[in-house]
Amino acid sequence: MTLPTSASAALFERARSVTPGGVNSPVRAFNAVGGTPRFIRSAQGAWLTDADGNRYVDLICSWGPMLLGHAHPEVLAEVNAAVLRGTSYGTPTEPEVELAEEIVRRTTAEKVRFVSSGTEATMSAIRLARGFTGRDVVVKFAGNYHGHVDALLASAGSGLATFAVPGTPGVPASATDLTLVLPYNDRAAVTAAFAEHGPRIAALIVEAVPGNMGIVPPEPGFHAFLAETCRAAGALFVLDEVMTGFRATAQGGWGLTGAVEGWTPDLVTFGKVMGGGFPAAAFGGRADVMSHLSPEGNVYQAGTLSGNPIATTAGLATLRRATDEVYAHLDAAATTISDAASAALTAAGVPHRVQSAGTMFSIFFRDGEVKNFADASAQDEKAYAAFFHAMLEQGVYLPPSAYEVWFVSAAHDDEAVAHVLAALPKAAQAAAAV
Ligand code: PMP
C-alpha cells in the first residue's frame, strides 16, 4: 500500500514554477532522500495532516520550535487575542518586555535584543562582538551551523589556523577571509588558532550542543576550555542556543555544560522555541557588552518587525508553559523512541549510533562515536533515505536528512509514541536491504 500523494505532487509542481526548488528553505525539499515533499495543510498536537489527507506523527516539530506541540489551545487563545489588538505597531510593546524578562530570568543573558530569525541573531551578535572588541576575526567550527550569515557560511582553509573560504557561491572571499573554521572537539586546533591570531580574534561562536550535523556533544570540559581561551585572549565567547535554547534542557544546551562546569558565555543567541512557531529570535548576554548596541551605544542594529507583538505573545505563552514536567515528558518520549529505534536497527543489522543532548537526539547511520563533522559525514545516507521513506509510508515524518535532530514535543503522548514504535522494525529492514 502506498499513501496517496497526488495533491502534494500537484502543489510541488506549482511551487517549482514560482519558487526555486519549490521550497522556501532547502532542507524541506527531499533532495537528500529523494521523492516529493509533503505539503502540510494542518497540524494538531503531535500530528501533521498533508494535502492528500495523510496523517503523520511529527518528529520535526518545525525544526524545534513546537515544544508544546502544534495548535496548543492556550497558546492559540493568547495569540488570537493578540491578533485582534493589531499585528504590528512599530512601537515598543508590553509583550516584548515580558518576554525579555522571562528570557533573562531563565538564561545567562543579562539583556536581550529581539530579531526575527536565528540568522539575524548570530549576525548581530558577531557585529556586536566586533564593535565591542574593535577586532575583526571570528572563529567557528566545521559542522556548526549559525544561519546563512555570509561570514559564517565558510569552509576551512588549507591549514588549521588559515582563514576560511566561502562555503557557497555568492559569498565573497572578503566576507570569509576574517573567519577561521576549526574541527570541533579539537583543543589543539583551538590553541594553535589563538596562538597565531589571538589579538585579532573578536569572537568564537559555537552551538551550545552542536545539532546541525546531528547531535555531537562537546567532550567534557571542551566548552569550558573555549570560554577560558576566549577570556585569556580578550575575545568574546558566543554560545549559539538557537536550536538548543529552552529545548535541550530547561536551561538549554548551557544546562548540560556551563551550568555544571561553572562558566557563562559573553553573548548568547536564541530562536525557535522562544517564538512559539512565529518568527522571533534574540541575542543577549553581558549587560556591559549589550550596552554597546544602538541606541544606547554605537553598534547599529535594527528591525521593522523585531519584537513583533504576535510573535512575542506566542513565545511568552510557550515559555510560561515550558515547565519541568514538560522537559521530563520530552526526555521520556525521546528516550523511548531512540531506544526503540536503536533496538530495531540492531535487530535488522544496520550499523548506527544514537547521540543525545538532554531531550534532543539524532541517529547516525554508522558505527562508533561521532566527535566532529568528518565523523558525521562518514555515514550511510542511502540507508537513511530508505529508513526515512519506510517511516513516512507508515505515517511518521522524520527530518528528510541524516544530519538532523529528531524533535519531540509535550504533545507526543502514548498514542503518538506507540505509532512511531510500531513503524520502526519495517523501516529498519528497509535500511538493511539497501
Ligand atoms: N543557529 C543554529 C544553531 C540553528 O540551528 C539555526 C537554524 N537551524 C540558526 C542559527 C539559524 O536560524 P534561522 O533558520 O531562524 O535563521
Helix content: 25-40%
Biggest β-sheet strands, sense, barrel: 7 strands, mixed
Whole-number mean pLDDT = 97
| Alpha carbon gyration radius | 21 Å
CATH architectural group of the largest domain? 3-Layer(aba) Sandwich
Which stretches are poorly predicted, pLDDT < 50 over at least 5 residues?
none
Number of strands: 15
Q: Approximately what portion of the residues adopt beta-strand conformation? A: 5-15%
Bound molecules: 4'-deoxy-4'-aminopyridoxal-5'-phosphate
- Strands of the biggest beta sheet: in what spatial order? 4-12-11-10-9-5-8
Count of separate DSSP helical elements: 14
CATH superfamily of the largest domain: Type I PLP-dependent aspartate aminotransferase-like (Major domain)
Order of helices and strands: HEEEHHEHEEEHEHEHEHEEHHHEEHHEH
Q: Which secondary-structure class do the elements indicate?
A: alpha/beta
How many domains comprise the coordinates?
A: 2
The end-to-end distance, rounded to whole angstroms, is 20 Å
Subunit structure: Homodimer.
Cofactor: pyridoxal 5'-phosphate
Catalytic activity: (S)-4-amino-5-oxopentanoate = 5-aminolevulinate
Pfam family, one: Aminotran_3
